[in-house]
Design goal:
Layout lengths: L3 H14 L1 E4 L2 E4 L6 H8 L9 H10 L1 E4 L4 E4 H4 L2 H17 L1
Antiparallel strand pairs: 1-2, 3-4
Helix pairs in contact: 1-2, 1-5
Protein name: Thylakoid-associated protein
Length: 98
């Protein structure tokens, strides 16, 4: 079972290295306040073999409000492929160091 510090550490790693792309602006997940939500969802899967399919599912299920709630989209739609690959690298490195 994860403790809050482990999730906070993972969230910090994610927040500093992974970004969303909006009109070619890179907004890091810590600045968008999305890093903790993502860390809380992926952490339980780290020891159980998190793979690309599971990660895609998690990113798809995290709903992001746009325009003050006028529209919603999934986090997956906002993270470019390169940033998603970086996220997977961060998660694999974190899992290896556990």
């Amino acid at each position: 079972m994860a403790n809050n510090q482990q999730i906070e550490d993972l969230a910090a790693e994610i927040g500093d290295k992974v970004y969303i792309d909006v009109a070619k602006w890179h907004l890091y997940l810590k600045d968008a306040k999305l890093h903790t939500t993502l860390a809380e969802q992926v952490y339980p899967l780290l020891n159980n073999g998190l793979n690309g399919t599971k990660l895609t599912e998690i990113l798809t299920n995290i709903s992001i409000d746009l325009g003050g709630g006028r529209q919603k989209t999934s986090l997956l739609n906002l993270i470019p492929v390169t940033a998603q690959a970086r996220l997977m690298d961060v998660l694999q490195d974190y899992e290896r160091d556990m």
